[in-house]
Amino acid sequence: MANIKSAKKRIKVTEAKTLKNKMIKSALKTVIKKFETALTSNNVEEAKASFKSAAKALDMAASKGVLHKNKAARKKSRLAAKLNALSA
Length: 88
Prior knowledge:
Elements: H1 5-40, H2 44-64, H3 69-87
Helix pairs in contact: 1-2, 2-3
């Protein structure tokens, strides 16, 4: 256990940031699963709507620093390819 005041604060701050990041990642996974479910049910309209929200969530996670911006772009690209395959 830390004895120094600044070290104790760092522990508290790290725990708070970890919880926030975990919340963002969990919400992101939920949105992506919703999109995947819409794809498997062949519901194009629902898939388009959920893709929009998934892309927004990925961008938000990248802007918050939870995901790397290139990883977010790659995931969006792969989700868009799946959506286009369904539409075509």
